[in-house]
Amino acid sequence: MKAYPVYIDNHLLSSSEIFQKHIHGHQVFIVTQKNIAELYLGVLQKTLQDYHCDVIFIPEGEKNKNIFEWQKIIEQLILKHHERSTTLIALGGGVIGDMTGFAAACYQRGVNYIQVPTTLMAQVDSSIGGKTGINHPLAKNMLGAFHQPQCVVMDMATLTTLPEREFVSGIAEIIKYGLIWDADFFSWLENNIQLILEKNSAALKYAIERSAAIKMHIVAEDERDHGLRQLLNFGHTFGHALESATNYQTFLHGEAVAFGMKMAAELSHRHQGLSVDDVSRIENLLKRAGLLQNPVEIPDLMSYMKRDKKTQKGETQFILLKKIGSAIRHQNLSS
Amino acid sequence: MKAYPVYIDNHLLSSSEIFQKHIHGHQVFIVTQKNIAELYLGVLQKTLQDYHCDVIFIPEGEKNKNIFEWQKIIEQLILKHHERSTTLIALGGGVIGDMTGFAAACYQRGVNYIQVPTTLMAQVDSSIGGKTGINHPLAKNMLGAFHQPQCVVMDMATLTTLPEREFVSGIAEIIKYGLIWDADFFSWLENNIQLILEKNSAALKYAIERSAAIKMHIVAEDERDHGLRQLLNFGHTFGHALESATNYQTFLHGEAVAFGMKMAAELSHRHQGLSVDDVSRIENLLKRAGLLQNPVEIPDLMSYMKRDKKTQKGETQFILLKKIGSAIRHQNLSS
Fold it and tell me: In terms of CA atoms, which chain B residue is nearest residue A78?
């Protein structure tokens, strides 16, 4: 896989230089949603004023990441005569990014797209790696493609309008990168979590940069998710089970993953010798970040976990830690 | 692009050895249509008896290469619990192959599939090269992906039940490979066309083998259709216009392409110096193959051609011949 540029800074939405470098035709097609458009569509359209520019609005929420809305994108691309040289632009969070990427993957057998993630979660996780897709009524993310963007433009200024709870949810994934890959980054997070929560520009930029770099490195090694990439699922097997058990109503994704990482840390102590000290460092940092609030009890979590795509093979694979910064795939918890 | 095996022989549907080599999980999912299933599903299912095997039937015809039928494939894959390690098997002509390939491209972000083309057209053209897709109500082949199969299994015995007109339609594409790439193959076809029409096993096998090899070579050089692959469109700009002008009711694809190649040969004489002798050799071979029947007059062909995907950019690109066996991209017919 070819790595691609990830731009991270304040006010990049108005950088026509960056967009021009990665748009090769004369047409662009922005996919966004109303509440994001109110804040950022105007500036982006001005930046793209040299191009023929169409816009489509997708209703908010994971439930609209479906075939119906995806078909609407395709239909508008055809009706507005977008050619194979067009560039789609995903302006929004993970739902917008996933759908736009999948529309770009399939329109005329694949056109270019640019990710412009406006949430912390999308910036540090879903906008990098080329996993695109939509949900099927019978199962999440069942339809999709691996389709890498031309570049990712992360305008940190968009985080100033992000609800606090969503911001904290994104921090869970940042902490994950330290845990699975980089002990120094984890230590740095322990020392700087307060600055990040205050949205200190330099601290936040470093945290996003380091997260994006770790994800890009892992994805470049294993684009199609056959090995190394599975480390990114640390905390996610439990996290997904928790989301599913609560019908996706109770927790934001990062909140569920934080509980998942806590459980995975405890299992890592039991099965991989992760030290008690490391377990408590993990729990402490998550708590200081504002995660692990409202302790949960989910007695029947194992039955939900069995429905998880990653556990369907009958064998449940967990990602555990040998120590902070070093993850391992662990096949069977009874072993 | 990694090249993959293309098996060509009689009675390959019963070769469990070939299928076993290219199926990696324990599940297979056959996509076919009723009239083909009546003839060949039994033997294929027997060959695959060691696997968990599900089957779906798609109604016949290009009009069913649509989102609705494609969604039905996805839904059955989910309902029958097919995992990421499953293998889809396309048993049928081009419509079945294109849809199955696109379902395989998108299910769980991509699973394996095997092409088992049962028409001559699908064997020498659509089953090789990984172009998959479905039609949108507003335009043909607008949704799709490049997704290469694990292998292609061409059982020549399936051609014995193919209607004569469809068989002859496939020969048009075989002749095309000689014209654009291999003058010796074209000469061989001139000498052996009668044997091919009689379905002489050795002659037919060589013709299919050579066609498949030429297509595989071109596709391996240019998987994503940015350059060399466009040579494969020789005769197709006119051919598509002819099909479109007659609402896809009058001509089989190869029949229209044959008229297209005749027109392209005449244009090649005018613009690229193709000799009069070569033009008449081309016309003669097409006629001897049973093509160019019922001379057509399409006064308004140019306006239809402008709707063609390949001509939408305002500039119409034609594939012309300098001589038999040597094709060239020609940008502008007024030059």
Answer: B138
SS3 B172: helix
Residues in chain A: 335
CB contacts, 8 Å: A313 with chain B:
83, 85
Q: How far apart are CA B302 and CA B298, in angstroms?
A: 9
CATH homologous superfamily of A167-330: Dehydroquinate synthase-like - alpha domain (1.20.1090.10)
CATH class of B164-330: mainly alpha
CB-nearest partner of A136 from B78, B133, B146: B78
Residue B156: name the closest of B186, B201, B103 by CA: B201
- CATH architecture for residues B6-160: 3-Layer(aba) Sandwich (3.40)
CA distance A138 to B103: 16
Rounded CA separation A27/A76 (Å): 13
**Residue burial B114-125, b: 16+ Cβ < 10 Å; e: rest:** bbbbbbbbbbbb
CA distances from B197 to A176, A297, B291 (A): 65, 73, 12
Evaluate if residue B263 carries a pLDDT over 50. Answer: yes
Of B74, B79, B313, Cβ closest to residue A83: B313
Distance from CA of B71 to the nearest CA of A (A): 9
A312–B133 CB contact, under 8 Å: no
Residues from A contacting B (CB-CB < 8 Å) are 67, 71, 74-75, 78-79, 81, 83, 105-110, 131-133, 136, 138-139, 141-146, 224-225, 309, 312-313
Percent pLDDT > 90 in chain B is: 82
Nearest by CB: A144 against B109, B133, B144: B109
Contacts of B221 (CB under 8 A, 6+ apart): B228, B229
Beta carbons of A138 and B81 less than 8 Å apart: no
pTM equals 0.93
pLDDT value at residue B3: 81
- Measured at the alpha carbon of residue B6, what is the angle toward residues B178 and B189, in degrees to the nearest 5? 20
Contact at CB, A79 and B145, closer than 8 angstroms: no
d(CA B179, CA B319): 11
pLDDT at B306: 58
Residue A201 has what pLDDT?
Answer: 96
Helices and strands, counts by H and E, chain B: 12, 10
For chain A, report the end-to-end CA distance as a whole number of angstroms.
35
Q: Where are the domains of chain B?
A: 6-160, 164-330
> How far, in Å, CA of B331 to CA of B335, rounded?
8
Asked if A143's CB is within 8 angstroms of B309's CB, the reply is: no
Per-residue pLDDT tens digits for A214-248: 999 999 999 988 889 999 999 998 898 888 888 88
Contacts of A67 in chain B (CB under 8 A): 67, 71
